[in-house]
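Sample intake — Sugar kinase
Collected from: Microbacterium aurugineum
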Amino acid sequence: MRCTLGVDIGTSSSKGVLVGPDGVIAASATRAHDVERPHSGWVEMDAAIWWEEFVAIVRELLAGVPEAEIVGVGVSGMGPCVLLVDERDAPVRPAILYGVDTRSTAQIERLTHELGVEEITRVGGSTLTSQAGGPKIAWVAEEEPEAWERARRLYMPASWLVRRLTGAYVLDHQSASQVSPLYDIEGERWHDPWWERYAGGIEQPRLQWAGEIAGEVTAEAESVTGIPLGTPVIAGTIDAWTEAVSVGAHEPGDLMLMYGTTMFLVATGEETLRTPSMWTTAGAFAGTRSLAGGLSTSGALTAWFKGLTGADYPELLAEAAASGAGARGLLVLPYFAGERTPIQDPDARGVIAGLTLEHTRGDLYRAMLEATALGVRHNVETMRAAGADIRRIVAVGGGTQGRLWLQVVSDVTGLVQEVPATTIGASYGAAFLAATATAVPDERPAITEWNPMSERIRPDDGLRPFYDSLFARYRRLYEGSRPVVHQLAAAQRGGSPLTPTPTPEES
């Protein structure tokens, strides 16, 4: 049976699928892992795990379906990450993860001062935030000079797998556009003056689009993985964009809403929209642009609460459903790991407001589901204000398995969400990209045939006035609590706030 293989390296696990030519999943495998948090604001990972788990997943899949004939390999991974390696491709330090890692605040401020906000936005599309790869590269150069002295190449999870499989040193345009400010979004190329200034000594990866073939499996990779010699491997991209592909939410007017460890949103269009509150990037395919956003916590928040209480998810969901809209007067800010878009505040912290002795764990869990939904609404409204033409919303990711969470998001936002038949996510999208890359032109599959929509989640219009009011309170709660929360964040770090000049209330 002809199959394509798709593997995604995520924040909390790696997942792989074998997919037949009709889009049916023949086998799947998962490996859980943890990130490292050695200091406040640091989130990093040993890149050896990425390859080890890839090999283990592929070996399991091939053993489970011995009749599978692998015709293409698709890869994706969390990002943007910064993995720097030496001339022998040995990592010089653990990989620094995406916007949840906030260590480079000082570098963001310095690069912004040196280059200017207007010029950074003109070249790269976005202002510099904790999501940007450039300041993290600068952080290594400044804070770990011995590691920097040995650094020669830059990888992310997908491109690291490509390197190990094929020997090719590439990075896709979408990932590269998040190595701000080192990528020219209109020219779709590296911005050489700033690359030399802030990444001198690092060889530039060759740029490709996500679905293009980067190379073929080498004899060495075949011996380790069992994937046949010469099998084509695509360049791949960051998981959120591959997830969008997996559900067909990658056309202009589409918004992909990814329910995972973090919540991620990708609006696809043809125009480069620039706003300081969101991330402007290249799309997964030539000729497309994305306006993206992400909450720092979503599934991470509910998992944290599950761990504290010792309850299982079915119990918590049942209790949250019984609690009802508004969680009996509770309101939560979901900023337990700082926040990315649209407030771009690494010093934001979680807040639980309205708590009384009468509240239950079901009320708290309901309030946390509503908190992530309020964060989604804030992002969607910001995108639309920036000019995003959002005509269709598709939900994807592990969180879509819980119908209550989907319904809460639709009720809070007032949006209809389309849910596809297969929501396994980025690994499936990677397998689809590999299938299209290796098929002859007139036999290329369509994602609507592989993965049709199975249902639509419609909002309860009767709850709209209530959630409009709650959203207003949500916005006011952040503004009102920010001065105290920033002081608490500074105390947690043992230093001064990494925020703009204090307001009079903070002084």
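Post-analysis note: The chain has a mean pLDDT of 94.
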